[in-house]
Specification:
four-stranded antiparallel β-sheet; 117 residues; Alpha-Beta Plaits; rod-shaped; two-stranded parallel ribbon; alpha+beta; 2 domains
């Protein structure tokens, strides 16, 4: 049963909700239940850690670029010929979808080597 504001329900419904072990009773007037609600929300969320990854992918993979730009923070992006090199920070579930384009080395080190040549 979804959480409800107990200030808005009838006494009969409140008695019924109080007997439901999964109900979270929240009252804005009495300032009660919010902590329990936050704990329940936190417990229900799936953990998806933020990670950083570097990618090298063809420019023709525009949908992947759009997905990464929409769901992650792009720290660095540069174009070389038909390739896009980028470093992104975002949810592991998003970045892992494109692991076939991961590069193992740091793009900033590669950029320094390119400037030296």
């Amino acid at each position: 049963m979804p959480p409800r504001k107990v200030d808005l329900v009838s006494p009969e419904e409140l008695a019924h909700l109080s007997s439901d072990r999964e109900a979270i009773l929240v009252s804005s007037l009495q300032h009660t239940g919010l902590e329990r609600l936050l704990i329940a929300i936190d417990a229900a969320l799936v953990v998806d850690p933020l990670v950083e990854s570097s990618f090298r992918l063809p420019q023709c993979e525009g949908s992947i670029l759009a997905s990464l730009e929409g769901g992650a923070v792009i720290d660095e992006k540069r174009f070389e010929g038909n390739l896009v090199f980028l470093r992104a920070r975002g949810p592991a579930s998003l970045l892992d979808r494109y692991r076939r384009f991961h590069v193992k080395h740091d793009l900033s080190n590669e950029r320094l080597r390119a400037k030296q040549t």
